[in-house]
Amino acid sequence: MRFCIRWPRPHPVTLVWLSAAFFATAGNMALWQSLWSLVEVQGFRSLLFLVSLPLLLFCLFNLLLTPIGMLPVLRKPLLILLLMTSSAASYFMLHYNVLIDRSMVQNVFESNQAEMASYVSLPLMLTILLLGVLPSCIVLVMRTGHRGRPLRSSLVWMANVLATMMVLVTVALAFYKDYSSLLRNNRYLREEVLPLNILRHTYGYLGSSHRARAQPLRTLADDAVRTPGTRPRLVIFVAGETARSQNFQLNGYRRATNPVLASRNNVISFQKVSSCGTATAISLPCMFSSLTRAQFDAERAASQENVLDVLRRTGVDVAWRDNNNGGCKGVCARVPTDDVAEMKVDGLCLNDDGTCLDEILLHRLSARIEAARGDGLIVLHPMGSHGPTYFQRYPADARVFSPTCDSNQIQKCSNEALVNTYDNTLVYTDRMLGKAIDLLETYSAERDVALVYVSDHGESLGERGLYLHGTPYLIAPREQTQVPMVMWFSPEFVRNAGLDLACLRRDAGAEAFSHDNVFHSLLGLFQVSTAEYQRDLDVFAGCRARASLEWKATAARVEDGPSRPSDRGAGRCLRRSARYSLLPRTNRSVAQCITSVVTR
Predict the structure, then answer these.
(1) What's the mean pLDDT in 4-29?
(2) pLDDT value at position 581?
(3) Which residues pair with 318 in a beta bridge?
């Protein structure tokens, strides 16, 4: 005789309740860590408020997941997707104290295999197993169903929503002041609520990306005119990665992290420089955009030209060389680009994840330089100090400080070992920059050469429990927002550009600068005149002669008596403006006039 036990199949709303209960408790451990430290139990009312928190979260998740639960075929796949992604996010929130905001979601979508592999570890796998795989298995094996007509099922869903709304209203009315104070004073909490933060920012990122692609590219500075100098100018711009200002020897750090640059002449380090964001996805596009940090919008920046486009249109030979596995974030989309990691140079590409050491950026760079005609700008985008695998960013002979943290589990290393490893990455960056300057000097006989280094953002190394970067800017620590900016100029560049290095050093030590200055300073270096140019955002404007040396010489010859047709033409142009200055916004016609006669 066979006995058959038939277990009752609960209504699908039960699956939603179980999922909501999970996200209200174990699925949001990072959130509960924050709430536990913020809510002080000092009486019966505060105890009731603490008890109301999981109830409120359950109701919110119940409302969020109910539309998913009403989809017969898709409910389980979607719930499993939320559980798995939330478990991975929980690991980073618990171990690195990061928040899941828009830039973090963008980083995930734009990361490649090598960058993702650098985070893989046993604790990550265990977290995903416990908080993702096991709950997903329960969802998968749980059999749901409902008897009766569809109308009855609809009434169950409706009753679920109404009852949840009643509980939410009751809790909100009872503890309005408490919730208002908690959320107003701790706005970052909304970035800790899984999976709501993932859904909200994923929707925002995908929507913004779609709108940006749908828009036609807006031309920027179509009135731009470049004034050629007496000799071609060649600038190497290094868009650094994850270097923080406070660990730079040139900025007063007690350790020799910049021994090569510190020994050179004409090197200037800016002491107070703020980044546009705390992640490459924001800082890199913002750095080359005409938009300031206050104005920056990723969608707007992606749908308009940047400074590289403007310079290239005026005749500057622009090239981008990338060794960063995160890519150029669209900045280099319209300029010639070299993905140097594909070169697989022996001795420089030894990491298991396929990444290469940054000296590969200099491999065959001479050929790129020699192919340039006239003024040239070459942007180098290194791996720099990108974590958590700092130990893979430098070769063995750059291991100056020890012991080191040779693991991606940086939160388990001692602070001494972690800082040593990070500082070693800066020593190697210093060496790479020194070699880039050596290369530039070989062309100084026929070109005015210069190097500019600016990091995209900083890094947290365990201060206040924070690691890595990407903290929302509003609450980000100085370690993530204060970045190094270093410049080197050949003597010929200084002379022909009319730069006062003493003035520039003075400003570098006393004035505050930011990524907002990059766009306009690059225009200034290449003597580009346009209405988009803002003199007060040009780092060099206050330390540059009123006119370039070439134009001063022309003006002097005009006063003594014109000896060449171009002198007479320049004289007519100069007489149009008694106060001509380099790159004037109001005298753009004068700049165009002089350019036309001097270059005939």
Answers:
(1) 85
(2) 37
(3) 377
